[in-house]
Automatic annotation (TrEMBL):
This is Chitobiosyldiphosphodolichol beta-mannosyltransferase. It is found in: Endoplasmic reticulum membrane. Coiled coil: none annotated. Residues 1-31 form the signal peptide. Residues 81-240 form the Glycosyltransferase subfamily 4-like N-terminal domain. Its main location: endoplasmic reticulum. Keywords: Endoplasmic reticulum, Glycosyltransferase, Membrane, Phosphoprotein, Signal, Signal-anchor, Transferase, Transmembrane, Transmembrane helix. The chain crosses the membrane at residues 33-52. It comes from Seriola lalandi dorsalis. CDD domains: GT33_ALG1-like. It catalyses: an N,N'-diacetylchitobiosyl-diphospho-di-trans,poly-cis-dolichol + GDP-alpha-D-mannose = a beta-D-Man-(1->4)-beta-D-GlcNAc-(1->4)-alpha-D-GlcNAc-diphospho-di-trans,poly-cis-dolichol + GDP + H(+).
Length: 478
């Protein structure tokens, strides 16, 4: 890395020499001086570009994966990095390092993580000034990092977020002779429009920016056929659909591992604690869902256990959790009216900007038969909880209508049936009445919960059928 890490230093020297020669020319009137200045600057620029583009024997087996976001919360890009490393590439993984990436990424010797700091921008003055300074600093930061790594054959970046990373990544690829690949997860401007509106100047600028720089990529990947068609029709971009696949860690969880996780969660969240008699505590270890016989270490599910409902979220504007809360209130009403339904423990995992808002709403609910908790799980515990749940709920509503929720992919990897809110291309993933159900509002979700859980814990009803279908048709793991 050291031999190529001098690119920034060379650029600095070039700029200083150019400035000195320019100053010399300005103070003089000799035309020869101008010719000399131009010639020297041209030579220095050529040398610098030659150094940046210089290849070696390992260049074609090196790839940079770029995320202008938290690597630990970018599962698809982690899977890309792992897949590339398994195929013999050396991967430089650039992004924020707020949450710990998956252990497979950390253990893989062909993956080197280059952390970058999240930029906040100037904290005084109008918001526009904060945004502009943030973009400028991020441009300089990315240029510095990407020009200091070894020459790469490809640079693969996630979009969104693409401002300013698309332009910077493209520019670096031009300088270094690398092939530029964009993985389109969604459109950045549609996400910005959720909070600012379609006609906001920043949203319009972001839309123009993506439309201008997006087609400059050498290759493009996308997450749905609907997005592939939209990119071709409205952007002039030919993309390849690469559906998300669950990692091998997403699978049904054995009872022993379920019990161990529930015991750990019970230390923090009372919703997982056993509420019965303590007289057998010496012989058995209990949670609200499981019983472990300490004599032979065998684990069974409790006969009167509640159903475990799971949803995961980033607590952003594209997920309206008031729909789930209203549905849970209606479910509570069904039980009070005499319906034969199990009590519910609803675990909503994740963290994000709107979490505190919804926690206050949750705390204000007065429910007897439904309990809600909002745990933040370690990366290793999340798939274990998914594989232990009885039903998943997804409230992701694509800002563009063209991407699919990764959380449902992971749930299906655990053979966990899902109730998911409708949007245009969701049927590419969720097959209604086959591996789950699609709803449009809280009332429809409440009716679906009632229908699916009416025979709980029996595996003979529709919920069991969906799970069996997932076991049969489950696609290839990553």
């Amino acid at each position: 890395m050291a031999s190529h890490g001098t690119g920034t230093a060379c650029l600095t020297v070039l700029v200083l020499i150019a400035a000195l020669l320019t100053a010399f020319c300005v103070t003089g009137s000799n035309a020869t001086c101008l010719v000399v200045c131009v010639a020297v600057i041209t030579v220095l620029a050529s040398l610098w570009l030659w150094r940046l583009r210089r290849r070696d024997g390992g260049t074609e087996r090196r790839v940079c994966v770029l995320v202008l976001g938290d690597i630990g919360r970018s599962p698809r890009m982690q899977y890309h990095a792992l897949s590339l490393s398994k195929h013999g590439f050396n991967v430089t993984f650039v992004g924020f390092l707020d949450n710990k990436p998956h252990q497979d990424v950390l253990r893989e010797e062909n993956i080197r993580i280059v952390p970058i700091a999240e930029v906040k921008g100037v904290r005084v003055g109008p918001k526009l000034l904060t945004y502009v300074t943030k973009v400028i600093i991020q441009c300089l930061q990315l240029l510095s990092v990407l020009l200091r790594v070894e020459p790469q054959s490809h640079l693969l970046m996630q979009n969104p977020p693409g401002l300013p990373s698309i332009a910077v990544a493209w520019f670096v690829c031009v300088l270094r002779g690398s092939r530029f690949v964009i993985d389109w997860h969604n459109y950045g401007y549609t996400i910005m429009a959720l909070s600012h509106g379609q006609r906001h100047p920043v949203v319009r600028l972001a839309k123009w920016y993506e439309h201008f720089f997006g087609p400059l990529a050498t290759h493009n990947l996308c997450v749905t056929n609907a997005m592939k068609d939209d990119l071709q029709k409205n952007w002039g971009i030919r993309a390849t659909t690469l559906y998300d696949r669950p990692a091998a860690i997403f699978r049904e969880t054995p009872l022993k591992l379920q019990h161990e996780l529930f015991m750990r969660l019970a230390n923090t969240y009372p919703q997982f604690q056993h509420r019965g008699s303590e007289e057998e505590e010496v012989k058995v270890e209990r949670t609200i869902f499981t019983v472990c016989d300490l004599a032979d270490d065998s684990v069974t599910l409790t006969t009167e256990r509640p159903a475990l409902l799971l949803s995961s979220t980033s607590w952003t504007e594209d997920e309206d959790f008031s729909i789930l809360l209203e549905a849970l209130k209606e479910y509570e009403g069904f039980i009070k009216e005499g319906a034969s339904l199990p009590p519910l423990v609803c675990a909503i995992t994740g963290k994000g900007p709107q979490k505190e808002h919804y926690r206050k709403l949750i705390d204000s609910l007065q429910l007897e038969h439904v309990e809600i908790c909002t745990p933040w799980l370690e990366a290793e515990d999340y798939p274990v909880l998914l594989g232990s749940a009885d039903l998943g709920v997804c409230l992701h509503k694509s800002s563009s209508g063209l991407d699919l929720p990764m959380k449902v992919v992971d749930m299906f990897g655990c053979c966990l049936p899902v109730c998911a809110i409708h949007f245009d291309c969701l049927q590419e993933l969720v097959k209604h009445e086959e591996n789950g159900l699609i709803f449009r509002d809280s009332q429809e979700l409440a009716e679906q919960l009632k229908s699916l859980l009416s025979e709980f814990p029996s595996s003979e009803g529709r919920l069991g059928l969906f799970r069996r279908n997932l076991r049969t048709s489950r696609g290839q793991h990553f």
